[in-house]
Amino acid sequence: METGTSGGTSRPDWVGLPDGLLRLRRLLLGFWAVLLAAATGVVLGLAAGPAWAACGALWLVAAAWAWVLLGRNWRSWRYAERADDLLISRGVLWQAQTVVPYGRMQLVEVTSGPLERRFGLASVQLHTAAAATDAKIPGLVPGEAERLRDRLTELGEARSAGL
Fold first, then answer.
1. How far apart (Å, rounded) are the C-alpha atoms in residues 122 and 7?
2. Nearest Cα to Cα of residue 83 among 163, 13, 162
């Protein structure tokens, strides 16, 4: 069985997420920012006067800031298949790294909601015996998600055979 790394002490080969997840999240951000800006501008314009309608633009300023944060968050997501476990790393300010041993995995599923399917994305959800250690890799290309599911299932069965 070939994995991302062959030795226990070598550095993992990290794999980042494809840019489809970033495009989806930025599209949703733009949609909600424009909708909120328009609603705020109309309501304040009618209730308090036309000068107050400009306050709706605050949503667009916040969206510009969130646009940058989404990019940083997307770049922080990555995973690595090692010999005995799967590593998932994410987060910008609060970084988290999850280690899921192949022998502890109970269930690996691929999910894809309507928006994810529209953008050609799927997520891999890993369930372990302890609910607190469940992990998820969002925004994968469906082919990669299915390959990862099959690979993790195969490694999980091989590692838990001795139990």
1. 30
2. 13
User: What residue type is assigned to position 105 of the chain?
Assistant: M
DSSP classification of residue 142: H
Cβ(126)–Cβ(86) under 8 Å? yes
Strands (DSSP E) along 63-145, which ranges?
78-81, 85-90, 96-101, 105-111, 122-128, 135-140
Per-residue pLDDT reduced to its tens digit, 146-162: 999 999 998 888 877 54
Residue showing tokens 């299932």: 153
Beta strands per DSSP E along the chain: 15-16, 78-81, 85-90, 96-101, 105-111, 122-128, 135-140
Q: pTM score > 0.85 for this model?
A: no
